[in-house]
# Entry
Amino acid sequence: MRRLFIAMIWVACVALLLSKQDARAQLSDRATLEASLGFEDQQAGDRPVGWTGDPPETISLDSKVVHSGKWAVRLARDAGSSDTLSSMFKAIPVDFGGTTIEYRGFLRTEDVTGFAGLVMSVNSRTGNLAFDDMSDQNLNGSTEWKEYSIKLPLNPEAREFVFGVVLAGTGKAWVDDLQLLVDGQPIARVPKLELPKTVLELDHQFDAGSGIAPTEFTKVQIDNLTTLGMVWGFLKYHHPKITSGQSHWDYELFRVLPAVLEARDQTVAAAAMAKWIASLGEVAPCSLAPGWRRAIFICAPT
# Structure
């Protein structure tokens, strides 16, 4: 349960921070990436270059406590620190083949009340595929430098790899000499692959905005938009064409909006939405146990 809780918090922190900046700024080329893993000659004041940290005041470079070289990174939390954990991370595209990705690094701790650990997440275009934060290894208290390793499978749907270090509770943790290995090979030696583009990269119709700017709404429009919002949200998480990433679902909402806004009543709006749903294609029947019946996109008990 603790691991699930930490995973939810960490993924939420990553998503929030990435939403505040151009995600492309997180993507490092292989040479820069390799250099950043040891924190040598990669400083901006007291912060490591190319890493995102939160809360920022709990993360800094340290030249006195190191595993090797001149620098390590220190995460330090006390009772007054904000949030429930501190994390430092980097995101890179999964532009390589392989079956397993391994993340190694040396950690040292001092008076940690929660836990410290390497953390990594493999993500598809639509969500998380695999996650590990070492919380099950209970690295806490005070420990000397030791190398740790975590591995995750590389799903063919993987498109982004996020990795870093996390400190929960209070205390201090240091990290140094990180490595990323794909099937046992340093990532810098793994050939890059040209990933096929999906509709999310190819559909640019509404990049500049929806083009819809009504000044006021009638009651009929408000009711119809309410229904559309519920239908759109349900399909987003249940229709196979959408959950598999074959549709730019935000832009599809913009495409159906004019017809719904122009509908004179709920019947006309419902017909527009039904036509829109039908354009997504057939949905395979649910495989149900006895005592169940199937409705449109819904498996419900009788």
Notes: The chain has a mean pLDDT of 83.
